[in-house]
Amino acid sequence: MMTKREVYTFKIATSEDEHTQIYKLNYETFVEEIPQHERNGSRMLVDKFDKENTYFICQKGTEVVGMVASRSNRPFSLDLKLGNLDSFFPAGSHICELRLLAVKPKDRTGRVFTGLLKNFGENSADFDYAIISARNSQMRLYARLGFKPFGPSVGSDEAPYQPMFLDRKNFTQHWNNVRKAFSLRK
Fold it and tell me: What's the chain's Rg over C-alpha atoms?
């Protein structure tokens, strides 16, 4: 028996409706699932860097089922948690931070996560290093996509994170390998 394969679309969020769905997904993920923020009556969580973020989203039809935010303005959340972030990278490096990775539980497949990162990489040519706070339980997933750990663990006992980075060269090489693999299957 064949199962229907989900059709996902990856893009940069532009509409008010997409942003509203992002705030709801943030609430579901970072209030209800991962206890990082307080509950509120609106059931929406607007990021403190919302106006600076570029949101890369995954949609199924018009429903936002996954997202990750990117920003290049300092201070990053990891600046505040590590205190010496620049010491981990070569002087003059252009760093951007990926934050708020959230995917609805029913859509947590490698395709969604991989597509979000691919969309980010293809539309963000101006970084030497992309940094992220990876949930400790998800470090293997990030490592498969080329991220490398650095620095000490951050966060809380309820929500521990490991700082990780992906450099532009490895990112480009990884996606070239992915493209080759997919073109060989056709």
Answer: 17
